[in-house]
Amino acid sequence: MKWSQIPLGVLQTxxxxxxxxxxxxxxxxxxxxxxxxxxxxxxxSLKPDAIFLTHAHFDHIGAVDEVRDKYKIPVYIHExxxxxxxxxxxxxxKFFTMQNLIQARPADFILKKEEAIxxxxxxxxxxxxxxxxxxxxxxxxxxxxFVVSGDALFKSSIGRTDLPGGNQSQxxxxxxxxxxxxPEETEVLSGHGPxxxxxxxxxxxxxxxxx
Length: 211
Fold this sequence. Notes:
- It comes from Neobacillus ginsengisoli.
- This is Glyoxylase-like metal-dependent hydrolase (Beta-lactamase superfamily II).
- Keywords: Hydrolase, Metal-binding, Zinc.
- This protein has about 210 residues and is of the alpha/beta class.
- It has a single domain, classed as Metallo-beta-lactamase, Chain A, CATH 3.60.15.10.
- The protein contains six helices and 14 strands.
- The chain has helices at about 35-45, 60, 65-70, 90, 170-180, 200-205; strands spanning about 1-10, 15-20, 25-30, 45-50, 75-80, 110, 115-120, 120-130, 135-140, 145-150, 155, 155-160, 185-190, 195.
- The protein has a six-stranded mixed beta sheet with strand order 1-2-3-4-5-6. It has a six-stranded mixed beta sheet with strand order 7-8-9-10-13-14.
- The longest helix is centred in the last third of the chain and has 12 residues, at about 170-180.
- It is globular, with a radius of gyration of 16 Å.
């Protein structure tokens, strides 16, 4: 099983494709440029099984319906942001002048708690990591050694908390209690920017020191 990072859209939001040896795959945060993403998947003969969202800000959801309709696959989101997909005010697209209004149909499955998920041969754990937004979650693949953290934790930084529903103290609590408890070698697949590791952020992230 392996992952690929595909930056999409004007904000270069990282979409992640987790693929198995049988060419089945999961899609995390198809933020924009649906045709580009579909072409990427087609060239590799990959067969998506589902879309999982780390949260519902507009730059993470822009291609949800295009990709969902192409492959006839379900979408998963946390219940705290269940209504954000359909509401440009909640998902933030209403307030960014460079961005068209973003709306998507409601998700097919609602995540309501921290839990282990098994979908085909894919097995991972959902951690609730609010702070950047109320319904932010991180997806931890223990056997593979990586976590899809969305906009919670970045290389040498953390997610912004000045958007509606953001809370910095809550975000720092999420990072320390959920993410920093993972093995130090765990790769952090962030919503923007380069990959990092839990150990690297424990040692050098200026936002986490002194918490």
